[in-house]
Amino acid sequence: RHGANAGTTGHFLLTHRTCAVLLKVLFHVQTYRSSPFFNVPFRPPVSRAAPQPEKLQKNNVHKKKKLVEELALDHVFGYRGFDCRNNLHYLNDGADIIFHTAAAGIVQNLSTGSQSFYLEHTDDILCLTVNQHPKYKNVVATSQIGDMTEFPGTTPTIHIWDAMSKQTISMLRCFHTKGVNYVNFSATGKLLVSVGVDPEHTITVWRWQEGAKVASRGGHLERIFVVEFRPDSDTQFVSVGVKHMKFWTLAGSALLYKKGVIGSMEDAKMQTMLSVAFGANNLTFTGAINGDVYVWKDHFLVRLVAKAHTGPVFTMYTTLRDGLIVTGGKERPTKEGGAVKLWDQEMKRCRAFQLETGQLIECVRSVCRGKGKILVGTKDGEILEVGEKNAASNLLIDCHMEGEIWGLATHPSKDIFISASNDGTARIWDLADKKLVNKVALGHPARCAAYSPDGEMVAIGMRNGEFVVLLVNSLKVWGKKRDRKSAIQDIRISPDNRFLAVGSQEHTVDFYDLTQGTTLNRIGYCKDIASFVIQMDFSADSRYIQVSTGAYKRQVHEVPLGKQITDPAAIEKITWATWTSILGDEVLGIWPRNADKADVNCACVTHAGLNIVTGDDFGLVKLFDFPCTEKFAKHKRYFGHSAHVTNIRFSHDDKYVVSTGGDDCSVFVWRCL
Fold it and tell me: Which windows of the sequence hold WD repeats (predicted)?
């Protein structure tokens, strides 16, 4: 798998990745919907026979129907800043940037905005670093979550890969349990140091080209945040963490360390250290949780810079070229600056930068210097460039913050879509230009979203039982209501633009007449819903709604009175405007062998009615033909998400698929081929 055998790596990685998913199935990974509602002893019988594709949709008479053969990842809206650090870097003299989210390593060109992807990881990437030695230009190391104690065979791995070709150069099999949370190359680029999230927080030094371990030792009993080589050394590095500061020396196959010595300096004490940088003459700088910066000579504290930031100093960056130090922390922006600061070698502040993110408190997790610019990554999923001289701030990426993304809807006639998240925001994205168009704070975590058929309004359901109807052009509130106390699971507007259906966790579907104005008085509701609502679809004539429930039954009801239709012959005559149900004879084949009831989370049929895509608990997006009536149907699978895929939709013209992630807090855009 290394060196001469690098050519076989791709095949091996595919096998490894597929095995990792299969192991999750075999070992019954706890799924996100595990609850008493899902202890169903068997999958209930489906409601009716499969329709012909043309029965699915109205308005298909003049459309040229095309089968989707493949999906290709086109763009990812996401950056993992909420629990990672120093994971954002320049490439190619500042022409490109590299970062990660979910299980994807992402290279983005700054002039075009186009992205390319490294997709050989099997789970969440936790760390990323770039080799700074000219001999190893664009060589990247990434590593991931893994738990070989709970799932043997899913050991965390460190991948060394080429950022331009996306080819794996080497793969290091770790004995770190739980995962690897930091990696860093040595001065010559030949060695790599890693630290695990195992109980001992083991530190390991590797000769990565050979895949060989050089030395390994327990680092600290509490968490280590950063471990970095001195930029002029292959034998000396520093680790910092929870009340932890150690200076390490690699001596042959042994790792030796000296603890940082505080001495008798006034106001100084050993506290949690979050970041590290290096200066000339064997100086080391560490950022503390209280905002101070500690300056060390060898392993002795020689100076304390009090309140370098008002909050924790999460990240630091320096080069020995000019000795300037960039720090990033948690800070409320003021006229004097914000959470990114530039210092000279004596730790005298040169400049403080306002990021202009609109956040009341800025929290920076990654900084990197380029040619006259500073690349900044924040806890809230933003990536910015700041000019060192003019302090101009340019927002490159503005993604969802920490929180699962459940709400997703594509516009009925334009290349835009909306996502709504537990972070309490809804965001409208442009599929063609691959950028954020608008966003709004909702005040509560959001669970679902739906456009009106005319594209002028969007309805969003919240976790607290409230729903809101927004005007698309302005994202201003048209109306809102709260008739339920539990989460709104799905929300839909009928094809005739009249009825709003609101499905909740309280085993109900409520109907509202939008033509009666903004008061949003409930005019009816569905009775006898077996469990909480999962998905809903209106019929093409707006007279019926099908409801998929947590009891894994699909029910059909009249709109707006809510009377259940049980006659199979009557149901057979219904033409559905959309199909997002994971239940029914029509979609029997989307369920894999040995599937738990909660494994498949979401589905969507093309407007042409010829394909269906699904998202599941194992981070897979799958493409099937539709109808999909044979058990364990043939399909194509696509990796990138790291945990459960929460929602999935085709664009209005079936040229794109959009999928949302749960734990990875990311939105993936796939091109249909």
Answer: 405-439, 481-522, 638-673
